[in-house]
Write a structure and sequence with these properties.
Layout: E1 6-7, H1 9-27, H2 29-48, H3 50-58, H4 62-65, E2 69-75, H5 78-90, E3 94-100, E4 108-114, H6 118-123, E5 127-133, H7 141-152, H8 159-171, E6 174-175, H9 176-188, E7 195-199, H10 200-209, H11 211-217, E8 226-229, H12 234-240, E9 264-269, E10 273-279, E11 282-287, E12 291-296, H13 302-319, H14 324-334, H15 342-347, E13 353-357, H16 359-363, H17 372-377, E14 381-385, H18 393-402, H19 418-425, H20 432-452
Parallel strand pairs: 2-5, 7-10
Antiparallel strand pairs: 1-6, 2-8, 3-4, 4-5, 9-12, 10-11, 13-14
Bound molecules: 2-oxoadipic acid and nickel (II) ion (NI).
Nickel (II) ion binds next to β2 and β8.
Length: 453
């Protein structure tokens, strides 16, 4: 087969995320309501703030806004995780970052599968937060072995998906027809199943150990548990959620509202109780799926991230048990120590930026100086904040917990094990800081090279 007939991984990812969103809308009607609310708030925000609209357009962010989603799944075995890595690779998604959730009392560790280069991110930055259950943290051997035995029985991939993944690896991609089939076969892995694979007693025993364990072990596949659209004004969405019939989480996770948004802010509506059929004709319910909204800001350097983590730590005690409004007020007070102007974030090396020539820069004579800040002042270069494409472990823990009825187990704490995770995955996870640093460095290099011409 000639390579020209292959569809790009970006195209496959775009089709897949569209198909996933359609499936989730059909499965969880409240998700449709959420999408409508976010679209409405985004429209109003852009109308109110034409400068923001112009910036987003200039930065290739306006197009992707309407399609941008992240989702989350949880799997039970190393084989499942390793196969998912191959499945996501077909769509140009790589494992980025290691997240230890044991520190938050949740027995999983995770990565995010996502596209990494500028063009792919601009096309569709679809990301899937993927967690591996850590059965080794279950203390009772009998229960652990039971869970392992149940998981060993299932195959979360269709034979068709397995074939097409192997085919894609062998021929270096998929043609249009194969891509179409891949999307529909791969989607099956993420579908919700009302029929549990176990009887109610087994479900309850696993549930009593940790709700999440029951969620991972007792079903045929790792149902997508939420899909998250991106909003330009999360405070507004949070305020409007109750009127739209959504049971919003109490507080917004992450940094406070700022002039220069940093990292990621998130909120969710609580999981639904869904009727479930257990083996032996018993009926019950399972709570798994919810909705989430995110607002993204600039990616921070390690220095910026250390400051963020420190301030978040300081705010933790002060905001304990506060309702959202007071919580946000106190958070903003604490984060007053975090510079809130792009120029300062840049000069102090707190955040990542992408440098581009302005029209004047493109027309400029050769032989310019190489100090980027000076070039910015002369109007030859602009710097745009690089959007944070990843997740935050403390926020993720808050999202997990809001949907686990606050269940946590401190016995899991302090059990980070990145090596075990990577060995299950069958690959190293990419360091997110290195990715942002490379993109920043490449843009600097391009700009300076053009001005040296
Ligand atoms: C994942 C929770 C983490 C986020 O946005 O931080 C997450 C899960 O509940 O499986 O999705
Ligand atoms: Ni999420």
């Amino acid at each position: 087969m000639s390579n020209t007939s292959l569809v790009s991984p970006d195209e496959i990812r775009d089709r897949f995320s569209t198909a996933m969103s359609a499936m989730y809308q059909a499965e969880v009607p409240q998700y449709e309501t959420l999408l409508a609310l976010v679209a409405q708030v985004n429209r109003e925000t852009l109308e109110r703030d034409p400068a923001l609209a112009e910036r987003l357009r200039a930065h290739d962010e306006l197009n992707r806004l309407g399609v941008e989603r992240h989702g989350a799944i949880r799997v039970g075995t190393a084989d499942e995780l390793a196969m998912l890595r191959r499945l996501f690779a077909v769509m140009g998604m790589q494992p980025v970052g290691y997240y230890d959730l044991s520190q938050a009392g949740v027995p999983v560790h995770s990565t995010a599968f996502r596209p990494v280069d500028d063009a792919a991110l601009a096309r569709n930055p679809f990301r899937v937060f993927t967690s591996l259950l850590r059965l080794e943290l279950i203390e009772r051997p009998a229960l652990r072995e039971r869970a392992e035995a149940i998981l060993a029985e299932r195959d979360i991939f269709t034979p068709g998906a397995r074939k097409l993944i192997a085919l894609s690896e062998a021929q270096g991609g998929l043609d249009d027809d194969q891509a179409e089939r891949f999307v529909s076969e791969a989607l099956e892995t993420f579908r919700w199943h009302r029929d549990a694979t176990v009887d109610l007693d087994t479900y309850e025993a696993l549930h009593a150990e940790h709700r999440l364990i029951a969620d991972v072990v007792c079903f045929r596949g790792p149902h997508i548990n939420h899909l998250t659209p991106r909003t330009l004004d999360i405070d507004e969405v949070q305020a409007r959620m109750p009127a739209a019939g959504m049971n919003a989480k109490d507080v917004i996770e992450g940094p406070p509202r700022r002039d220069c948004p940093i990292l990621l802010r998130q909120t969710s509506f609580k999981a639904l109780e869904e009727p479930t059929r257990f083996k032996g004709e018993r009926r019950g319910t399972h709570t798994a799926r919810f909705g989430e909204i995110e607002q993204r800001g600039v990616a921070l350097t390690e220095k910026g991230r250390a400051l963020y983590d420190r301030l978040l730590g300081v705010s933790r005690e002060k905001t304990h048990r506060l309702a959202n409004e007071a919580h946000q007020r106190v958070l903003a007070e604490v984060f007053a120590a975090f510079p809130d102007s792009e120029a300062v974030l840049r000069r102090e090396g707190l955040a990542f930026f992408e440098y581009r020539l302005t029209d004047a820069g493109r027309a400029a004579e050769a032989g310019h100086e190489t100090d980027l800040e000076a070039l910015i002042e002369q109007g030859l270069v602009t710097a745009r904040p690089i959007t944070y494409e990843d997740f935050l472990p403390v926020s993720a823990a808050g999202i997990f917990q809001s949907n686990l009825g606050g269940a946590q187990n401190d016995a899991y704490d302090g059990q980070a094990n990145r090596e075990a995770f990577e060995s299950a995955l069958g690959a190293a996870v990419t360091d997110e800081f290195a990715l942002y640093a490379e993109r920043e460095a490449a843009s600097k290099e391009r700009v300076l090279k053009a001005l040296r011409r």
